[in-house]
Amino acid sequence: MNNNHLYFNNVFLNNTSSVVGKKEFEGPLSSAFDLYSNDEYFGKSSFEEAESEMVRQNLNVLFKKAQKLPTDIDYVFGGDLVNQCVATSFAIENYQIPFIGLYGACSTAIESIICASVFINGGFAKNCVGVTSSHFCTAERQYRFPLEYGSVRTPTSQNTVTASGAFLISNTPSIIRIKSAMIGKIVDKEITDANNMGAAMACAATNTIKRFFEDGNMKTEDFDVICTGDLGYEGHSIAREMLNLEGLDIKTEFTDCGMLIYDKNKQDIVAGGSGCGCVASVLAGHFYKLLSNNKIKNLLIVGTGALLNTNSALSGRSIPSIAHAIHLSTEA
Predict the structure, then answer these.
(1) How far is CA 226 from CA 154, 186, 206, 325, 327, in A?
(2) pLDDT tens across 231-279, in order?
(3) Residue 24 in contact with residue 38, Cβ under 8 Å?
(4) Helix, strand or coil for residue 104?
(5) Hey, how many other C-beta atoms are within 10 angstroms of the C-beta on 247?
(6) What domains, with CATH codes, occur in the chain?
(7) Least packed by Cβ within 10 Å: which of 43, 162, 285, 316?
(8) How far is CA 95 from CA 15, 26, 51, 298, in A?
(9) What is the pTM of this model?
């Protein structure tokens, strides 16, 4: 327990759903997503309303796929990047499901799954939903510059993913078990460049992955895939180098959701993807299908988040980051 490693009994990932934007659907994982929109407004009058609508649509897809009603759900855990997580709260208010709002920046999807798993494992709930989202236009307006400004992106900047991922976590047996989780610690390496959040988050990812395997129950080669959430090409390269320096040689596929969701050769995404919807949609779509079809058996997925806001960035504060990990398995 000193390593903050949580072990679960009879906690299952029963179903998932994912809704993405046009750019994400044009990437290499298009067949893995449930729904997409060519309209960045999702039929609404503002980008913030669009993100809420995306979340609402995603929950409807999840309930339909899982053959559940909102009344079947004990708790929803969720969040986003919009101030005070209003994209999520406005989306679920009409469902009247008990709601616990979360904020872990881009790590929020994994955070929501961990919290739901704790409730299920402790016997406090039978069915929980984790849901997160991000939208390129809301994130640009809040964290960087309004789109009308026409700012030039730096080589290390990442593209905020327009997507939402939702997860049904339950005590009802299914093929995919949520076996364990590692709670992240805040890591701050005094990185101040808000256009290079991959570097800041790489430090947190390294810390969490190292602690996960220091626990001693598994080796890196026991996993088919070890995947970080939102490091992109720059951060992933740094994380790999840092893990090697720490003496942890990952002897399996080591990748990142921000690298998988876009086609770097065909799409203008600079250093890859990020945002709450990045790891959420790739896990809910791509990896859920791989696990369900038994193409992989053990997945360690590590959600990474940069814990900054506009005020901290403008005042020159460094970027503290965090990473949470979960072990998903089709083995008993």
Answers:
(1) 28, 21, 12, 10, 9
(2) 999 999 999 999 999 999 898 999 999 999 999 989 988 888 999 999 9
(3) no
(4) strand
(5) 7
(6) 5-170 (3.40.47.40), 177-329 (3.40.47.40)
(7) 316
(8) 19, 31, 17, 34
(9) 0.95
